[in-house]
Amino acid sequence: MMLFGALMLCHSAARQPWLMSTRPTKGKVHCASCDAVCCRLVVFLESGDDVPAHFVTQHPKGRDVMAHGEDGWCVALDRTRMCCSIYENRPAVCRRFVRGGSYCNAIRTDYAREHDRAIKMVVK
């Protein structure tokens, strides 16, 4: 079963883009070892979420969701620093996402099977 893109999540992504990889790692997982995959999922907003209106769109089924840019990432993702630009006001579902948890690893594995790296490695 393909998990990628099926549910709703985001994260406070990487601060070290030169370490990016979509391959799940053994041991502790860092957002820096990912292609911001969870920021590509559909994030359904819940009552009480205080997300700025310009980051919100409507899902075809009528619910409010976080909008995505043409590149497929959540519009709240700061593409320069690879972190959530609304971290303090991020949706509840993003707050519940467990980095390195079973769902995180599953979506990263599924994404890696289907896609080439979206974030190019940068060596500084």
Automatic annotation (TrEMBL):
Lineage top rank: taxon? Bacteria
Q: Do you know which InterPro entries this protein is assigned to?
A: Puta_zinc/iron-chelating_dom
Q: Name one Pfam family in it.
A: CxxCxxCC
Q: Which protein are we looking at?
A: YkgJ family cysteine cluster protein
